[in-house]
Amino acid sequence: MRTILEVQKQLLPDLMDVMKKRYTILRQIMISEVIGRRTLANAMDMTERVLRAETDLLKSQGLIEIETVGMRISQAGEELLEMLEPVAKELFGLSEMEEQIRRTYGLRKVIVVPGDSENSEYAKRELGRAGAKALLSVMNDEDVVAVTGGSTTAAIAEHLTPSSSKRDVWFVPARGGLGESLELQANTIASMMAKKLGAQYRLLHVPDLLSNHAYDSLIQDSNIQEILDMIRKARIVIHGIGGAMEMAKRRKLAPQTVTEIRDEGAVAESFGYYFNNEGEVVHTMLTLGMRLEDIRHTELVIAIAGGKSKAASIQAVLRFGQEDILVIDEAAAAEIVKDL
C-alpha cells in the first residue's frame, strides 16, 4: 500500500518543495542557535526578500523567535523538527540510503544527515548533533567511552548537553595525541565530552607516534599501563575516518613512510591503522592506545565521517567489519550507494 507521503509527492510536488525548504530553514536556525537573516540567506543561496517571507511565516506559527541579535528556534519549533525527522528523511531520500548501507555492511544502525559537511559548516554541525544523539542513545551508567581525535569527533563534543546522570561514565582518549591543533586531539575531545555530561575522564599524555625505544620505555610505566588498561576495556569507541594520504600528511610522516603507505594501497586511516579498499590493514604505526584486538572485542563501535571525498575511505573501514553505528552525511552516503 502506498504511503500518504508517496501520494502527496505525486499529486502535490510543489507542496513537497515548500515543505523541504521550510524544514531546511528551520533546521539551519536550530543548528546555528542564533543566526542573522543575511547569513542564513547566503548559506541557503536564497535572496533576503524570499527568506524574509519564509521566516515571517515561521514566526507567525510560533516556530522561531526573531530578536535584535538574530533568529533562534522556539521550543515549539524544536518539537516540530523532532516530529518531522522521520518524514524528512523519507522526503530527502535519506531513509532509503540508510537502509541500503545498513544491509550491505551488516550494521546495527546508519544515520544520514542532509548536506555535504566538506562544503557546509551547517552540515558539519548537523553531523556532530546526530553523532551526539547516537552516543547518548547507547550510553549506560559506568560505561568507559574511548574517543579518537579529529574535527568530526570534536563536533560531537560540541553538541552534547549537560546531564547529571552521567557521573559514573568515564571518557578516555583511544590513543596518544596527534601533532595538530590542540582542540582536535583525542585528550581534549575526551575531556570536553566528559565536562559537557558531568562525567569523568582520564588522559593519555604521550605522543601519537613513538620510536621503538620510547614505546618500550613508556609501556613499562605503571601510570601509563593503568590508563591503557582502562582504554582497552572501553565498551564504546567513537572514531572518525580519514583518507590515508591526508592523515599521513597531517601526521608529518617521513616521505619514505608516505610512499610505503601509498604503495601498500592504503585508502583509509582509523585508530592509527591504514586500510586498503578491501578493508585489510596494510600499515600500522607504533602508538600507544587501542589495538586491533581491542576494537574487535569492543561492544559498540561508532564511526562518524562526512564529505563526498571520504566515501572510499568510509567503505574501506566498513569492509574491515567492526562498525556497529555509522553517522555520515548525504554527500558521502550518495557516493557509497552508487557503488553498491
Automatic annotation (TrEMBL):
Organism: Paenibacillus urinalis
Cross-referenced Gene3D superfamilies: 3.40.50.1360, Winged helix-like DNA-binding domain superfamily/Winged helix DNA-binding domain (1.10.10.10)
GO molecular function terms noted in the UniProt entry: carbohydrate binding; DNA binding
Domain Sugar-binding: 90-337
Family per similarity comment: Belongs to the SorC transcriptional regulatory family.
Lineage top rank: taxon: Bacteria
UniProt domain CggR N-terminal DNA binding: residue ranges: 18-87
Pfam families with a match to the protein in the record: CggR_N, Sugar-bind
Xref: InterPro entries: CggR_N, NagB/RpiA_transferase-like, SorC_transcr_regulators, Sugar-bd_dom_put, WH-like_DNA-bd_sf, WH_DNA-bd_sf
Keywords: DNA-binding, Transcription, Transcription regulation
Protein name stated in the entry: Sugar-binding domain-containing protein
Signal peptide: none
